[in-house]
Amino acid sequence: MRSTERDDVAHAASLDSPQPPPSVLARAAALLGAFDEAHPRLGVAELARRTGLARSTVHRLAGELVRLRLLDRAEGGTYRLGMRLFELGELVPTRRTLTDAALPLLEDLLEATHQRIHLAVLDGVEVVYVAILGAGEVDVASRTGGRLPAHATGVGKAMLAYAPPEVVRRRVEAGLPRLTPRTITTPGALTRELARIRAEGTAYDREESTVGVSCVAAPVVGTDGRVRAALSVTGRTAAIDPVRYGVAVRAAAVTLGRTLREAGL
Amino acid sequence: MRSTERDDVAHAASLDSPQPPPSVLARAAALLGAFDEAHPRLGVAELARRTGLARSTVHRLAGELVRLRLLDRAEGGTYRLGMRLFELGELVPTRRTLTDAALPLLEDLLEATHQRIHLAVLDGVEVVYVAILGAGEVDVASRTGGRLPAHATGVGKAMLAYAPPEVVRRRVEAGLPRLTPRTITTPGALTRELARIRAEGTAYDREESTVGVSCVAAPVVGTDGRVRAALSVTGRTAAIDPVRYGVAVRAAAVTLGRTLREAGL
DNA sequence: CCACATCGTCCCGCTCAGTGGAACGCATGT
DNA sequence: ACATGCGTTCCACTGAGCGGGACGATGTGG
């Protein structure tokens, strides 16, 4: 992942999307959104380029965001996302309730398997990773706070299988992008796979999101019977025993579901 | 910690601080800041009360923030912090680099001790918890993304001991609030304690932040010899063996420091 | 060594985005 | 029945915010 500091400016601003009239807030949000994993530090000019705003506007907005601690001033006249964003992010209810309830279970799974443990939620047609343990074990695409298309991941398929059909339809309509040669890319195959998952209660990912990496996942069901999250054990394909890990993951998922239900969702 | 959902509205808005002219951004930030651990969901009226804004203004701003996914609309006309905030928060560089490098070490510490493991940074005169493992073991005040005064915690004292003297001075000037009967509350005692920590390389917290809870902490030193973070093993006083855990924590802290240095901070 | 590009910063006049008081309909509780 | 709270909508006034343009510092290639 190592940011090579390459200047791949071929990134294009928001010249295409037809936003009617960008408000101050929208501009500021665009500024924050200009930062990503590969570009954690940006200068005024670069920010102006990425957001399509005037340099003077970026200058003023960034200054104000720094005062609000949503941005940090780094040396060389560059900016980074500020600590306040992290603090606010940790207060987001979905994240907090889930992690609070799940962390002990994730830790047990880690100790039992010594594989990478994922906790994720479904946001629209994508998976958002809420907590990850066992980092460093293997080099996968997942990142806490990161997104991946739901159809291409174990946790995603586990949730799609138990989500309202309309969600699956939207995923199909949004396309089934290929991440690896084994990614499911046809609506038919996806529907069949989801039926299989419902029958078995467990989802598998055999190198569908990352080559050489497999995973076993299970859905977490909340109060009203709707999927609230999913968790998975992930690792090199050779290290992932579907049967043994399947039991452990399902057990943890069921426990988590019960905990959430007891806590009133 | 369990939120008792008490309605302690005796919270007071920002009627005291003499902000010159609150800008749109400042208002929006105030809206986001109105949410806290005990109040994860707020309605328009409550938000207006907390921020001092007009109800109509809150209504419009909140609507815009929802469109930007910085807020979520919950049922009952209430709002919560939105997933986007979590995603942005996970991109904050200090958090990312630190956790990426530290997580494996924290996991090892957890497995070795089965106590609560803290990773924290110093922000001004307060400690911000960046990562916590071993949740549920014990009921302490720490929370990922949460803040505590530096002088009253193990990680805080570890960092103060190796921080520029000016930071300690600012902490003293900001006051040394008492969290428990054993919290250090006099400048003299603090200075002595910090000298002791520098001599030994390890900080202890004997029920200074939470009654019944102790911890062993060590500073993490980065490239330029400055403290970048601190980590600690925390648990019920009876369970914390200063000597045994001291070795483990110092070792992990040194390793983390080296890792950060090798990665170019 | 200079011409040129690009950076962050600052100024300032124009304008429209943003503000909040007031009024409305709807639940509550009294 | 009334009173009080809520979320929502409307709208006239105005000053906050915008960005073109200018400036000095820095870096780069001829």
TrEMBL record, chains A, B:
One Pfam family it belongs to: IclR_C
Residues annotated as domain IclR-ED: 84-265
Compositionally skewed regions (Basic and acidic residues) per UniProt: 1-10
Protein purpose: May be an activator protein for the gylABX operon.
InterPro entries (UniProt xref): GAF-like_dom_sf, HTH_MetabolicPath_Reg, Tscrpt_reg_IclR_C, Tscrpt_reg_IclR_N, WH-like_DNA-bd_sf, WH_DNA-bd_sf
UniProt-recorded Gene Ontology molecular function terms: DNA binding; DNA-binding transcription factor activity
SUPFAM superfamilies listed in its UniProt record: GAF domain-like (SSF55781), Winged helix' DNA-binding domain (SSF46785)
Domain of life of the source: Bacteria
Record key words, sorted: DNA-binding, Glycerol metabolism, Transcription, Transcription regulation
Residue ranges of every copy of the HTH iclR-type domain listed in the record: 22-83
One BP term from GO: glycerol metabolic process
Protein name, entry field: Glycerol operon regulatory protein
Gene3D superfamilies associated with the record: 3.30.450.40, Winged helix-like DNA-binding domain superfamily/Winged helix DNA-binding domain
Disordered as annotated region, ranges: 1-21
